[in-house]
């Protein structure tokens, strides 16, 4: 099967290309930047280029996007052009070419303000049923692209699966206060409790979505590591998260103490992957429990694929306040 992977120079695109290289499929990478995993260099904003790239493809894995860290360096029009127009170009070209499945990499950032509970309220339980309230141009354009996927499916029958992925990037956090409060590895392991996934698990979800797309027609799924929390934990998570973790993982303390790490005092949301596990047959491996077991014996908590892809950064230029121009 010939698979077109957009954004092949990015984190997820490269991870998909690396994985597909060891499969029976033929993968073609498309990106605006040259890379060892990119065969077609050009912009998804250019319709003629997109139509040419889609010809002969049986599946499109659309990961190309402008991200949240680009908000201060790119205009709103840039976001509309890439995230909306680029997605529309790919969808219409895929429908016209008779593509069998289209998988769109979206983001939990589409939930926006719906993620943050009011003062005195329990932490938010985030499933696909939560109505998104995007809070910036990134979330707005990704949600619009999701809706285009649904529209084109309804109009043409193109099977489309939207994956709202949690964080999987290895770069430092884009919030200055968070960077000051937590070591990067400390933060990443903490996030596996409620808002992060390992890139190897994200790749697996995408490949399962390919196989399930014809039967699903159209659907959306939250893609995040398995959380140990239940709805009953939500009130205490928002006020004393460390108590909940201590109750569930009494052995984590030695691991954290050895490294000088800390848990967050509050967790404001929990991403729930139940539908992805049920409907895609997804079985994510890399979660907080796995990380603690690995760290207890001084082994790597990240997947081999995550290590191979590594950090890429989001900007060619440097900023006075590294690593991002936003606080």
Gist of the model:
This protein has helices spanning 11-20, 47-54, 76-97, 137-156, 176-181, 184-191, 199-216, 234-248, 252-259, 274-279, 288-296, 304-309, and strands at 2-6, 26-31, 40-41, 59-62, 101-107, 124-126, 160-165, 218-223, 269-271.
List the helices and strands and how they pair.
Layout: E1 2-6, H1 11-20, E2 26-31, E3 40-41, H2 47-54, E4 59-62, H3 76-97, E5 101-107, E6 124-126, H4 137-156, E7 160-165, H5 176-181, H6 184-191, H7 199-216, E8 218-223, H8 234-248, H9 252-259, E9 269-271, H10 274-279, H11 288-296, H12 304-309
Parallel strand pairs: 1-2, 1-4, 2-3, 4-5, 5-7, 6-9, 7-8
Helix pairs in contact: 1-7, 2-3, 3-4
CATH class reads Alpha Beta
CATH superfamily name?
NAD(P)-binding Rossmann-like Domain
| Overall pLDDT confidence | 95
In order across it, which strands form the biggest sheet?
3-2-1-4-5-7-8
Query: Can you write the helix and strand succession as a string?
Result: EHEEHEHEEHEHHHEHHEHHH
How many structural domains are formed by the residues? 1
How many β-strand stretches? 9
Write a structural description.
- The protein has 327 residues and is α/β, with parallel strands linked by helices.
- It has one domain (2-309): Rossmann fold, CATH 3.40.50.
- The chain is built from 12 helices and 9 strands.
- Strand 4 (59-62), helix 3 and strand 5 (101-107) form a beta-alpha-beta unit.
- Helix 2 (47-54) packs parallel to helix 3 (76-97) and helix 3 (76-97) runs parallel beside helix 4 (137-156).
- The longest helix has 22 residues, at 76-97.
